[in-house]
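User: Fold this; tokens only.

Assistant: Input:
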Amino acid sequence: MDYLEPSPFLVFWHQAMIIGAIIMIASGIVIYLSYNLRLSSIKDPHAKYDFINTKEIANYKLVFYCFGVAGALIINRYGMDKLKTIEVWFFARLLISIAGGTLVGYVGYLVLEYYYPSVIHKKLLKWRYLPRVSSKGSTMRLLSEEEEDVHLDMGMQAEENIFSIDYDVWVDEKSGEVKIEKYAGHLEALKCNSCGFFTMKVLREEITKPATADTPGELVKYYQCSYCKSNRATAFNLSNKQSEADYRNQKYKFRSNKDVDLVKLEVHSTVKGKKHYEFQSVDEAQRFLSEFDFDKS
């Protein structure tokens, strides 16, 4: 039997696949190493915090995507010794390789989107609260929320009051040097009490009681987890002195139930699954339940 040489196109194709796979794997490694080298070169803890917060997940996604493409290219070499001409198996293998590469990239996306935020959260806490050193070489002290207000102007305090921005104030008690660091507020993404991921985001807001000149109003924020779709609601106080954007978490005092700090409700439905809600008082929870309609929630 005569030996059938593979077509020149297939020879080129298989060579291109292995070269492309090597390039993509190398690209993924370079992206990973480049990111970590840039991170290690940053000495300031606050700058390192910002760099991790804005760059790490995006860079690691690129790494996974490069590996996904490399996987697809490698799969495209499967059975190359038996394939001599372009036939059905060539196109079937092409589809399988696309599916395999997509799977690798998608798994990486899921890991970085839903699991990794809890890992990166620990990293961010480490660099945010690492003791700062003043220009004089002394260890600085992080002020409490009550102590830091004297160092913040009215605009900064307003940003903190609506949770859009959070400021840390470090003070060198020997020299009096003050360092103010700015961080994103708590409303970016909260930890979901149901699945444990940092995927709880604001779905909508509702002013349940408008503020007047004499009495404060009430604003309810409805959150939904982008992963498990659990829901929860939290009430905030609308200041009667400033705009409706100037609100704080309500602090309730009860004649009874004085030890209650938080009320959590979990409502189950055979059709729509379960939903989670949080309230700052028993009265809030009771009022919510008296008006609750699962079909409209």
